[in-house]
Amino acid sequence: MSEPILVLSHLSKSFGALQATDDVSLDLRPGEIHALIGPNGAGKSTLIKQIAGEIRPDSGSVTFEGQAIDDLGPADRARLGLARSFQVSSVVPGFTVLQNVMLAVQGASGASFRFFRPALSDRNLTAPALFHIQQSGLEGRAAVKAADLAHGERRRLEIAMALAMRPRAFLLDEPMAGMGTEGARDLTAILEELKVEAPILLVEHDMDAVFALADRISVLVYGRVIATGTVDEIRANPEVRRSYLGEEA
Amino acid sequence: MRLTGAVPNFLVFAALIAVAVIADLTGNPYIVTLATKVAIFGLAGVGLNLALGYGGLVSFGHAAFFGLGGYVAAILASHAASGAPVVTFPFTMMGTNEMLAIWPFAILVAGFAALVIGALSLRTTGVYFIMVTLAFAQMLYYFAISWPTYGGEDGLSFYVRNTFSGANTFAPLQFFGICAAVLGITMILVALLTQSRFGLALRAAKENETRVIASGIKPFAIRLTAFVLSGMVAGLAGALFADLNRFVSPAMLSWHMSGEIMIFVILGGVGRLAGPVAGAAVFIALEYLLGPVSDHWQALLGLMLILIVLFAPKGLMGLALGRRGHV
To answer: Does residue B326 belong to any structural domain of this protein?
Structure first.
């Protein structure tokens, strides 16, 4: 039960002279929200990209459900159940909400090479898609083009797509970015529900949300994890206060 | 909604048939031949549209597949006429003048070429993809020019149009009927394809590759499949074009041809099922009406293309339909 789902061990990545990820080890355990915080440029997104397989680390290893996934590309990692959302909303703008979520259902099913049956009349796609749309608070918006959605709704659409991946772990890169206070509060409630489906590795700037949601927090500064612990431990950690939380005071 | 989307496509197809039938009844076989040309070029465009319109793969080398299909038809037909086998090793293969036997060969050869060219060129994107596809097509063009066995620069004639059981392929309307039927069936298949799971992934990869990958789908495999299918359709069109003229030449493989097929798609409407057919119809109508007036009729075509790209990026069909219906 407490066997971690995702383990990063000694990941390092540099771009020229810039050490973006410096010997990072952390894990994600079942049922938890593990928040990753740190100042801008701390290497949070670079780390997420290494977990998702979009960039390769220089050294170190990523283990997902007991399996080393270092040799897998991003599509294969997604198929294994590593569901990702993006810092800047990434949906298919010309597709409806329903088609976007159907795409994720289809990806998880692994059956994209079907050529004749109209996808929109394939209940194996539409039924789960509609369920996840409702689950993400987008009911009634299924026929709307993603390009016409409000910002907050597009965030929800990404959540619906992540859910449709039948995820074993979520990688959420700043899901609250650009949302108003009310939107952030709604999304906080949704993340609480997501956590029931699968543990979440959450990169987030909104400190209120992080402190309200996270079970554990890791603080990343200049590519290094300077502390990992519970909310209270992190709040009390003098190094964290100095190098990060202090900045905002 | 799907019905209203299909109606304009059907109307374009029906108009083409009407023109051919009326022209035949009023004793204008030349117009029937022009309509046949529209059906064939439209078919090539429908093929390219699969890659370009739905997949966002701007291939500037589809003449390769069109020309290969044409050469397969002409080579098989010329061997059927001469009685000499096409190959004797590792097995003996004779020529044929039966369209139903020629088409699968044309489709397979074009498809195989598309597999090889696609597997290499799809590793690039944007302007590099355009250039690599162009380069491959030009390679085949120069190969055809320098291969004397099948006419080299002069091209290859065969004097009797290939046969289709139950039809007299020399009657212009009957040959038109064959071409139009092939076009109609292909359009139905492409319509199904673009609405299928495969089509969903293909269209999504055009708009947002990152998202497709994050959904666990590999865009390369999807695109390569679309490119091969696209090349197959162009190859079939090439085989019909060879039969229309009873002649093939390296010009079918040249970049002018690639450009023309691309013009049909852009003129008619990128990513719209009957767009390339409408585009080919306008192209051939302009050539027919203005060609005799001035050798420079293509200047007008160029002007039209510029206006379309600037003011009606959805092509003539998009213009005619306004903001309605997309498929």
So the answer is: no
